[in-house]
């Protein structure tokens, strides 16, 4: 085993530990303020609704080149990836509009 392989395994382990801590620590901290859990839950539900809408709009067409080896892309996976991309695009534009609105609102005040 090369040293690069060892460092890659260590990096993967640290990423997993960081992801677990990024999820658990805010949950532990929010136990003192249950109202923040409601806001977080509402945000997660809203994100799920946006993804469901974009998943419903997404196309499930697969080009024959991607249906064969090495990709083996199925129509279901194609629809999921399309829904995820459309969700990302939608949230990007909503964030961009929010930034523009905030800056205009600050300039008026």
TrEMBL record:
<keyword id="KW-0812">Transmembrane</keyword>
<keyword id="KW-0472">Membrane</keyword>
<feature type="transmembrane region" description="Helical">
    <location>
        <begin position="40"/>
        <end position="58"/>
    </location>
</feature>
<protein>
    <submittedName>
        <fullName>Uncharacterized protein</fullName>
    </submittedName>
</protein>
<keyword id="KW-1133">Transmembrane helix</keyword>
<feature type="transmembrane region" description="Helical">
    <location>
        <begin position="78"/>
        <end position="101"/>
    </location>
</feature>
<feature type="transmembrane region" description="Helical">
    <location>
        <begin position="6"/>
        <end position="28"/>
    </location>
</feature>
């Amino acid at each position: 085993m090369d040293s690069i392989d060892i460092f890659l395994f260590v990096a993967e382990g640290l990423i997993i530990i960081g992801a677990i801590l990024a999820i658990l620590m805010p949950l532990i901290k929010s136990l003192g303020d249950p109202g923040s859990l409601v806001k977080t839950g509402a945000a997660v539900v809203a994100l799920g609704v946006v993804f469901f809408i974009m998943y419903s709009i997404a196309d499930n067409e697969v080009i024959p080149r991607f249906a064969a080896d090495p990709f083996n892309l199925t129509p279901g996976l194609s629809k999921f990836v399309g829904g995820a991309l459309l969700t990302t695009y939608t949230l990007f534009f909503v964030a961009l509009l929010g930034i523009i609105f905030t800056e205009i609102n600050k300039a008026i005040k």
